[in-house]
Amino acid sequence: MYHQKNMEMAQIIQANPILGSSETTERTEYFDTLMDYLRRARWKSRWIRAETDFYRNMMLAKGISRGKILPEEKYLFLLADIAAITGYQPKMMESAGGRKILYLLRKRNKWGGENAFRCLVKAVWGRNDGAWNKVNKFQLSEGLRKYLELIKCNQDFTQMNPVRVIVIATMSAGKSTFINALAGSKLCWSQNMACTSKIHVITGKPYDDGLVYEDDHILRLQASQDILFDDDERNDESEIAVSSYFHSTLGGQRIEICDSPGVNSSLNVEHKNITYDIIKKQKFDMYVYLMNATQLMTDDEAEYLQFIKENIKKRKIIFIINKIDKLEAENETLHDIVGDVKKYLLAIGFKNPIVYAVSAEAALLGRLMPYEKITRRERRKLEFMLTDLLAIAGNKSSIDYGIYEDDDIQICSDLIKASGILPIEKEIINVKKER
Question: Sign of the CA dihedral 78, 84, 86, 89?
Answer without folding.
Answer: positive
